Amino acid sequence: MDGAATVSGGIGVSDAAFAQLATILNGDTGDKLLRVAVLGGGCSGFQYTFELDETVAEDDVVIEKDGVRVAVDAVSQPFLDGAVIDFKDELIGAHFAVANPNATSSCGCGTSFSI
Questions:
Q1: How many Å apart are CA 64 and CA 111, to the nearest integer?
Q2: 92 located within any domain
Q3: Domain boundaries, position 23
Q4: With 79 labelled, which of 7, 21, 39, 40 sits at a CA distance of 20 to 30 A?
Q5: In whole angstroms, what is the distance from residue 33 CA to residue 23 CA?
Q6: In angstroms, rounded to a whole number, what is the distance separating the alpha carbons of residues 42 and 108?
Q7: Residue 1 domain flag
């Protein structure tokens, strides 16, 4: 992972993830943020979701750098404790990814995991 992670509530976000999110938002960082959540499902039991959102709940963890924000809801926080949200631009495609020390296994696509 490139660059230092910004850590809040035990969750980190890489410089590459912040840079890609800034590109996606095209400078319009006002109300939009990247929401990262853990949901039940996927081929390994849990799956990560990434979506643009405009709402911040009172119990969200919000990680911010230069006006670009990433939010994680209260239910997902324990599953992401110690994890780092990153952006990868690889031969197989570009995508947001999570390096999660809590995951005991994950699927090949990297969006599904088990604990």
A1: 23
A2: yes
A3: 6-108
A4: 21
A5: 12
A6: 11
A7: no
Beta pairing, strands 84-90 & 112-114: unpaired
Q: Structurally, how many domains does the chain consist of?
A: 1
- Residue 83's identity, in one-letter code, is A
Smallest Cα–Cα separation from 83: which of 63, 66, 58? 63
Taking a C-beta distance cutoff of 8 angstroms, is the pair 70, 36 a contact? yes
Q: Can you tell me which residue has the tokens 């939009």?
A: 32
Question: pLDDT for 25-59, tens place per residue?
Answer: 987 767 899 999 998 765 557 888 999 999 999 99
pLDDT at residue 53, rounded to an integer: 94
Two structure tokens written together for 57: 């709940």
- Cα 70 to Cα 18, 41, 104: the distances in Å are 8, 22, 24
Tell me, yes or no, whether 113 lies in a domain: no
Helix (H) or strand (E) holding 24: helix 15-25
Residue 72 sits in a domain whose CATH number is 2.60.300.12
Rounded Cα distance between 105 and 20, Å, is 27
